[in-house]
Design a protein that fits this description.
Oligomer: single chain
Shape: globular
Helix content: 25-40%
Order of helices and strands: EHHEHEHEH
Number of helices: 5
Length: 96
């Protein structure tokens, strides 16, 4: 299993939206590969994965304590880092 972690907010033009879209395409085109993918997200209210039909691949934990977010990142195979769109892309300095 490949585990991807995202710990952060979800705002317009910032968050795991692109990741969710990629998982959706992967599940449609290569379901056997998608079956080996686990995405764990924290930092925003749960519900978007369910709305997109991705609960087989994505777990949304909501707000978690800092030490738990660090544990999620340390136990992951990869981290997803969102980059803001628009003018904010030029001045953003990711904290992860």
């Amino acid at each position: 299993v490949v585990r991807i972690a995202y710990t952060g907010v979800w705002r317009e033009m910032y968050g795991p939206g692109l990741l969710y879209a990629a998982i959706s395409r992967l599940a449609e085109r290569q379901p056997a590969v998608a079956a080996r993918l686990e995405v764990v997200c924290a930092g925003f209210p749960p519900g978007e994965a369910a709305r997109r039909g991705l609960t087989a691949h994505v777990v949304e934990l909501g707000l978690v304590p800092h030490h738990r977010a660090l544990g999620m990142m340390q136990s992951a195979s990869a981290l997803f880092l969102s980059v803001a769109g628009g003018v904010h892309a030029r001045v953003q300095v990711p904290g992860k």
